[in-house]
Amino acid sequence: MDLKSFSKVMKISPFEVKDVLIDLAESHAERMMLNAGRGNPNWVATPPRHAFWQLGRFATLEAERFQGYLRQGVGGLPEHAGIVARFDTFLQLNRGEPGVDFLSAAVAYVRDRLGYPADDFLHEMACGILACNYPVPDRMLKLSEVICREYLQREMCQGAPVTGGIDLFAVEGGTAAMCYIFNSLKANRLLRPGDKVAIARPIFTPYLEMPELEDYGLEEVFIDADEHDGWQLPDSELDKLRDPAVKAFFLVNPSNPPSVQVGQRARATIASIIEKDRPDLILLTDDVYGTFVDGFVSMFALCPHNTILVYSYSKYFGATGWRLGVIALHADNVLDRQLSKLPKADLQALDKRYSSLSLEPRKLKMIDRLVADSRAVALNHTAGLSTPQQVQMVLFSLFSLMDTADAYKAEMKRLVRERVATLYGAMGLVKEPDPDSAAYYEELTLDAIGGRLYGDEFVKWMVKELAPGEVLYRIADEAGVVLMPGRGFGDTAPSARVSLANLNESDYAAIGRAIRRLLDDYYERFQKRTPKSKTTRRTRR
Q1: Domain limits of the chain?
Q2: What is 142-401's CATH number?
Q3: Which residue among 188, 231, 255, 491 sits deepest, i.e. has the most Cβ atoms within 10 Å of its Cβ?
Q4: pTM of the model
């Protein structure tokens, strides 16, 4: 593929562009391809995984207790009675094995800190990991919901725990959460074709693409972050939320790809707008990267009654293949209130939609409608995330809850911050510290990189002279480095997303050097086309 053809490809989703760049980077067999466009982390949290396998061993032994009369490899279901004593025996027999001490501590934590009977917890976990039942309840297993709720309170609401009930729906990662939420908001007439939705940019691409689909037909109002103010949302942009025609506000926090949390000032502004001007506003916040920020506070903590919280365990625990996520709604929320105020014809239509689930369908809460809609209502009885997935989610949650010193979190933060420092150092720059940064991705803009190295005139020349996607094309073709175009995430300036999660530190050094070599080449071209007296090379460190 030549540059002209690639420039046309730049019009499609950045995730599809990435695949084209991978093919280009791999076309040179003599070198290694470095794919920094992928958000999949190259780490895994090991203690809760060890615990998962040990729990599986225990649960299987529970099933095998029935083989005295059941033959041919057939076991029975775990029994509730006496399960704690049998678990204690298992612990004694397997003391020192990886994951066993973790399981012992987890049971004690649930019993002593959360106040739930150990036998209830063990029975739910044993049945869950054996996957011998449909999820019951279908939203989420009973104690699993309790434990994951505690985790979200700790990680998403630090210093500002949400009071009142919080309902969770366990889903197949943040991706499924998005699909279910969009679908259910439409099905319940809370968003209709032609409605305005505000979207904070830059943002994870599907939040830009899905509203435009024929399925939804929403009108987008963009709330643009200011690159020159640390990618924060200015008050002048947030003022757009005061428009009563804006039905919902979609936010990824920390942002993707700038990877910066909504700062304290912007959080306060949003909360004030909702409290004083827009108590009817629906806020959807996707907080998957929040655990990488010091003292992260979700908008769910500040505006719990207006907020749909989406969280995924994928990135923090290195578990993208597990597909683990939750949707959280406060028990008292704006969606339920808006449902009750729908026109009579809509209420009657929804009565019919959910009539198979309840004799009083109008009392069906939005969280339960989400569950039903996820299985086209008719299959509601089979809804819910698989029980082994829920078990692993619980073990991840307990891993964090029991880590009172935040040792794992400190290691995650150290890892990504060292990688970003290495990337910038290889370009001859220093990455300025930002307390709001998650450092999971880095948004490399031409202004920020080219301007710091060679000045603003050089940047203007590049913007004018280069074909769309030229830098991405050349660095893939010449250096085997794959980056993702920032424009596909709603960034209006020439930029690229670098994932700090999926490569080793030496790889980021190589990427930084490749970027610097390419920019040096462009600068040489710039100097040849520009009178020397008007050029000033500068490196701001």
Answers
A1: 3-31+407-534, 47-133, 142-401
A2: 3.40.640.10
A3: 255
A4: 0.93
